[in-house]
Fold these 2 entries.
Entry 1:
Amino acid sequence: MAALQGRLAENILYFARALRTAGIPVGPGTVLDALQALSLARVVNRDDFYWTLHAVFVKRHEHTVLFDQAFKIFFRRRGYIERMIASMPPETMSGSPKAPPPGVQRMQEALFYGLDQLEQQKSEVEIDARMTVSDREVLQRKDFAQMTAAEIAAAKEAIARLTLPLDEVRTRRLVADRYGHLIDIRRTLRASMKAGGAVIDLKYLGPRVKQPPVVVLLDISGSMSEYTRLFLHFLHAVTDARKRVTTFLFGTRLTNVTRAIRQRDPDEALAACSANVADWSGGTRIASSLHVFNKQWARRVLSQGAIVLLITDGLERDADDTLAFEIDRLHRSSRRLIWLNPLLRFPAFEARAKGVQTILPHVDELRPIHNLESIAGLVRALSGAPARGYDPKLMLERVA
Amino acid sequence: MADKTLPNSIDSTLDLLAKADYIADRSLATVLYLALRMGRPLFVEGEAGVGKTEIAKVLATTLGRRLIRLQCYEGLDVSAAVYEWNYGAQMIAIRLAEAEGEGDRARIEHDVFSERFLIKRPLLQALEPDPAGPPVLLIDEIDRADEAFEAFLLEVLADFQVTVPELGTVKALHPPIVVVTSNRTREVHDALKRRCLYHWVGYPSAERELKILRTKVPEIPKKLSEQVVAFVQALRKEDLFKSPGIAETLDWAGALTELDIIALDPATVSDTLGVLLKYQDDITRLDGTKVKALLDEVKSELRAAE
């Protein structure tokens, strides 16, 4: 193993670093695993080398693409992998058909050491260039500094102060509960042992309650641009307070920003979000975004009785049957679909736009979300408690 | 099955799987081989019906090991997954002890919470020594269990041990071969995945699917098998809510063989589409004309390939 730790280890270390740059979380333990795997697998060709590293470094299906790119760029030179394989010490090759005769390895190291170092540096530079910027789309970074600083500060503070109440659903898991309805035999027996089994003091179990996951679909198209910034702050606060919140942004296409928004500092989180999203303040394609969500994400994030918050003004120009179909599917696969529409700030708002008319029959609740008060109302709604003086059903009827 | 030791190379892993009619691709064999050699759990994820569960079953039969299966569901708890006390027997033991005039409470407690009254559930069974070698532990559809259970599994998968408060820690002398499967109806936590080797099982290539089909449904006519595979492969390129998996291909091939069909025609395909597609939306999307167009395309491609 000692010799293997040398140049091969160094290369794997560099490769791991490249993967990290590309966005695959790779810890030092994984590098050790990779070395162990390589020495066990007795790699003889490029494919095996690829899949061995893949087995260790990739922990999510989405990362396969990144890994593939990084691998191709990093080990692009012909013969590079073959040399790496050859550089593995003889003991790891035991049992393989051809063990290199003694001396060969030293020769190879002498011949290729400097060369590899050069290649190493070159490939690293290229990875940096290719991995950080998407050249397919011109990134249109939305500048968050559009509101006055004082306004933002006030709003942010207010949002952070909103205490998110516990929204609870019963799960099938049982916990000790004095007023439960099932007898907990294990605890009962343990308790009765205290008295030497003379007294049987019944202990009970009840269903455990937990917060259901929240899935947020936030429209970031041009017509919503004055709100998105504050909504993101709100979503950050929600994500911070609850365990399972999945956030998607959509304009012309759907982007999952859950990881970005999970960062502790709200400003950092928002910056990370804006770096991830390519279509700030563009057009809206609700139907196609929902289609992508239904097809790729719904089964992964809606399975545990999720509440869906759809934040959009519903202004979709080409609202046709597909929109109705997709919103219906979304409604059927979520426990509760809440539509948050900032346009409800106008008292005379009516469902005249075609998109609004299409979405309306398929949502459970329609709520305004244009100021702090309405956000506070939403927080109450999320808690499952009936909001005072506000009937979302009435709102549905009024605009319909 | 003469060779029941662990495979010692990627090629022999492929052979091992092939022995039990499991046609794997090299990437799966690589990760499986590594999992076996490094003593790590294997975490396989993929769409329904691509043969994830089958991996564990095949491993158990070819290696001659016991297969212990833990099917996950919401609310799965320790008493169903790890151990439970035999309360009835414990009660009787307590009464007997009393009748015999045994007054030492600590003694009774010690006797009652001994291994004699322990009912072992899958996870504990998997840690026990087995004469045939460490068993294969299949933790099926982990995405159906809730996070609380996932957190509990961390101890089991990292150190191959569980803690029974009344008895102490039970540790496996020889760690079992663990296969964890997930349909990805939710994301499994990274902490759990980090302890495993991960593999995504995708849909097979046409070539491999044909091989699988002929292995599993040997009585199928050659021409029909080619058409079936080409049609299913074409179907997977369509914008469907749920693409058919290998299990569906095999079911469909079986159904067609039962019906004594020797070549596909649009009417037969439309009639038997329910075997392949399980969502009404998908079935309506594939109406008669669409099926005919797809089938013509597939047939002309097959003709060109000849």
Entry 2:
Amino acid sequence: MLSHFIFLGLFYTVLAIICVTVAAAFVRAFEDFRARRAEAVCWEATFPDLPARDRVCRHEFTGEFKHRTCDRAFDCRECQQHAALVARRPAEAGPAPERYYHRGHTWVQPEPDGTVTVGLDPLGESLAAGPEALELPEAGARVQLNGPGWYARKRGVRLRILAPLDGEVVATGGADQGWYLKLKPLDGRFEMRHLLRGAEVQPWMAREMERLHGALAPAGQAATMADGGMPVADIAAAISREDWEALCGDIFLLP
Amino acid sequence: MSTQPAKPARYGMAIDLDRCTGCGACMVACAVENNVPPARAEATPRTGITWMRVYQVSDRDRAAFVPILCQQCGNETPCASVCPQEAVQVDPATGIVDQMPQRCLGCRYCMTACPYHARYFNWWDPQWPPGMERTLNPDVATRMRGVVEKCNFCHGRLHAARTRAAAEGRRELNPGEYVPACVEACPAGAIVFGDINDPASEASRVARQDGSFRMLEALGTDPKIYYHTARAWVRDAVTKETDRG
Amino acid sequence: MDSQLMPRGVRRCSLPQFLLWIVPWCALLVFGLYGAGLCLVKGLNQTNMDNRFAFGLWIFLDLTVIALGAGAFFTGFLLYILKKKELKAVINSAVVIGFICYSGAVAALLVDVGQPLRFWFTFWHPNVHSMLTEVTFCITCYLTVLFIEYVPIVLKNRKLRQIPSFLVFEFELHKLMPVLAGVGTFLSFFHQGSLGGLYGVLRGRPFAFRDGFAIWPSTFFLFILSAAAAGPCFILLTTWAVSKISGRQLVRPGVLPLLGRISGILLVPYILLKSVDTLVWIDHTAPARGFAAHQFYAWKPFGEWMLFAEILIFGLLPALILLGRRFRERTGLLIPAAVLVCLGIAMNRFVLTVQTLALPTLPFDGFMTYLPSWQETATFLAVVAYGVLLYSLSFRYLVLFPQEKDLPQPRPAHERERAILEPVC
């Protein structure tokens, strides 16, 4: 009789553990949606699936690390390493930068009235120029850092442009206006520690350009300037569909 | 009205190998009594169902016959301990190892466990040619395809005997009131059946004789089938380790 | 055409080429299902099993396949419990292989039993003293765990992950993976062991019977060890084979030798314990039950060479290769060593299922032979085909090897030509 209890007891315990684990996952997922954390969770879940070359730590650009992959999904706000390295840097002289850059190739320009303007940087613009469709969020909608900012459809690929900040949309623009979103902060101030600025920007841009050329070179030709400037022709049309999808994924951090 | 005997019995057999002629009447009687379906045309000696099976042992120009049936193992009954569904139960009142075909999954683990190869599987759907179904014994349930079956000391006869005894107001069975079909059919009277616990029974008397032994004693299964022979070579052939080395 | 369903950053062959690969396996599956269908509809007389060979090809292969699928639990244990991060490279593939092995084995078992619809009887009337009850419970639970571990891999498919609820659920489930890995390890420990215990407790079969510890015969522990040793080898072999067939670099160069080393480390205690166990059996256990060990090997072709082959050629030899760094870093030695390990495990399971039944117990009995019927072989081939199909689909549409996108890949032939012919800017 005792062996009966031990055996069945163990079995039902194991079964219970399995059921509770799955139920806990369901409940936590539900909580994530309720707390509107779903977008942040989606980004965190897919970030490790990006190739290592897409996840380079910003401190590699400034030479502070030889090789480092970001393990925080580009959320420098809570990163100990980032805080320590910033504290170690000499105080920045000169006026505050006009534009800050996000790894998803958007720029952020703080406006005097406390809002920010968000647009695509030259590299992003060169890829997504003249989209077949543009889906911008409505005024009043909220965007989350590293969640979807807006969508552009280009040569069959639905590009998801990452939102560079947490904020509420006050106005939307378009490609012809040179900017896409105007955001106002949710809690008074914008958190911008995670955005690239100053000395980081140039090495980052150069590296992204290198990646662009590397992606284009074996497959097709894009007319570029001899000094390695921006490709002027429509890249999307010049390369195969497969390569175009891969390139978009690399540059815009699509999973 | 209880049909259980007051004292637990240990039913067993004593088989005299010197009397067995190998005629096979026990095999036929067993099959008829227990509704064993006739073998299909494709059946082989290894796929047919023979709850009672007579083997031959030879030594140059001599032959002897050994009826093998379920040995009703008493100690850590191998088949009972391995059945995952508890479809094998040892009846504490009689010592008989009962097989429940209606609970059997057909996994055949018990068949691997049985060292006496006394268990048989229904590889086909049981089928009786037209007309032959009239020979079926109404006291014994037929089995279905995909289950294991084996000798249960003609349990149907045990129940019938108990019912008769109870009708007469008795709780004990008289010796000879309950005999399995094979015992009844043997023309040489080679099989003796009875309560081994009862020192007065014929079966326990033969079991205690000189020259009586059990199969595969060293395995420690405590079988209830005793074999008796005065011929040393037969005893050697049946109990010796298979030494082909 | 189906590139939208494929993971980003990896290349796969074209759809027509893929269909060309799939079609013969589908045909094999259909053929195999026909064989299995015959067994289910007409009965087990379609097999060559009989009252003396109650277990045959299916049980032997089920045991082998479950031992090889042990890589799933063991890799999970090493990764999630012991935190060996390098195994992240193969864990997804291991889970899929484990799922295939266990689901295939369960399917084959349902055909093997005489009354498949009564499968639930074991749960309703469990005999807690029977090893087979333990196996049934554990394998059912573990298959559930494997399924739950497979689901996140599927949910991360490129199209499916665009549904936020799938992705969020996957994320939360993945955080709890160590719990499932722990449960999987616990369950696997017991059912791998009980599969060994199935034979070790057979007091009626002195060839297989073993003494042991408490209620568990030595074969219980030997099976766990051998399965843990074989699992990484099987993962190694499948990774290498898939890499060869697809022409892709799937894992970093150090991963396969690491798997080999893990196998090698486990093989050593296994061989030691097995040798001790064999000696104890020869000197003590078998004679106590009335049989001298050498008698069992008197029947051709199952001679004493089998014992030496299993322990030395398929055990010690690959262990030595896998433990030597210079050896295991050479693919030409690593792969054959892994094959030897897997064959050794298969041989071990064969000896305990088929050889045990072939040997006589009653003195006037002879040696039995058995060859599976075409229906039995077909049923097993159906399981193989199912495994290849499921794995192929998973490899094409899911991320089984996360390191693949970061590794330099050999350029496909037509692109290499273009790069040579056309000048680069």
